[in-house]
Amino acid sequence: MQNFLSQFNQVFFYSPIGMALVSKNGKWKKVNPSLTKITGYTEEELLSTSFQDITHPDDLEADMKQVQALLEGDADSYEMEKRYIHKEGKIIWVLLSVSIVREGNESLYFIVQVQDITDRKQLEFNLSESEQRFRNILTYSPDPILVHDGIKILYANKSAADLVGVSSEDMIGKSIEEFIDPTQTENANRINQELLFHNKPIYDYDLKIRTKDGHYADAVLSAIPITIKERKAIVVSYRDITERRKMEKRLKESEERYRRLFHNSPLGILVYQKRIIKYANSTAIKLLGANKAIDIIGTSFHQFIHPDRRLMVLRSFQNLEDDEQFSTSYEKFIRVDGTEIDVEVNGIPVQLNGESAVQVVFWDVTERKKEEDLIRYRAYHDTLTDLPNRLKFQIDLEDEINNDNKFTIMFLDLHGLKQVNDAFGHQAGDMVLIKVTSRIAGGLGSEGLVYRLGGDEFAIVLNGVRDEGEIKDIAHNIEEVIKQPIYVANTIVQVTTSIGVVFYPIHGVDMDLLLRHADLAMYHAKNTGTLYKIYDN
Prior knowledge:
By secondary structure, the protein is of the alpha+beta class.
């Protein structure tokens, strides 16, 4: 007996696991060094406490129920995982094995074995948290995700189930081929075999998903091989790209329409980037006088803009690259052969290879421009003499007055034309008028501008306020040129003039007042038989 106790004590003391003898009320009666190491308490500290004192409160009730079952004889031992509170306050997980020692019907004490399983429990917690995170990712991912073993579906989240129109539960256990386009099952099976046997993930491959009602959805998939409970499996995540494919199709159709419109448009269209022409349709090539696209593609756009407008147009188009607006305008383009064409042109900002560019649309308006210029010219010029008319006179004078430029007006009334009309007819009178006005304009040269105000009345506008000597010289020059013989039906006719002179702003600050004063001066010269009179208040 003595030898047995000696051996027990040696095993007790040197045991690598914690061992203790505990009284029926939980007091530590004897503890080994391994237990003190596990709990952090010294032998003396433990012997002065009970196991209840260092047991985690949440585990105490379960532990006491097991103790009570031993004391009542319902069991001889029990085992449980529980937590001790270390002397330093940290939690220690242990595997507790307890046996009761009896003598006859009397319970004497407990033999306790304690194994530290804190590291194992921490691994279990980490694994559990990892699995929970994994489940959460699968469950709550907005992307469809399913797990299969190459044949059967093991798991499917709600997004995957919604995509095919069933519940997650309905998908589990089903063959994956039920949800794949039949024309693609062979390819899908080949990919699955590669995943399972070569352990290589596959990313972004296209597959058509078959829904419960037989429709198909375009999807792009990624698949990763995993191991679940020592079984090989595949995690598949995919995105429904049906709408994207529809948009891509619409975009392709739109681009095709644009391409046809671009190449077949009756308008010239070109695209340039950083001033270099990148594209040009057949109409643009023709309008610019080139034989083929290569003649203008790759060249600088500015060489086709008239030099007088080049800087302005390029600045406007530069603003387009900054997403500003460029409204339709008249411009002059220079063709490959150097000839000029009038065009209407507008531009819009576009993207080319991810960078800003400008699409220029233009059309030839050369003939229309000529017609418009002619109409505009006729609106401002006398049809008989081709001199600027009264409307042009009013516009020019308003400009001069608005700019506060000083000027001189010589108001002329021609005499003798009525007699020509009466004697030889209006056609002869028109011919005389054309000759006289041509002589006046020619004699005046660049000195001033002659306007026909109507009938026999004309106006000459000179820059600045002229002194009386200059007025006299100009007036006599006019008198001399209109005195030159004019032959009508072998008869010499004579034309004379009376001139009224006013200065701006001396004799008036608006056109009506200046003309009224010039008219008064002209009549004064006419009534006094003099060539000209300067208005005098």
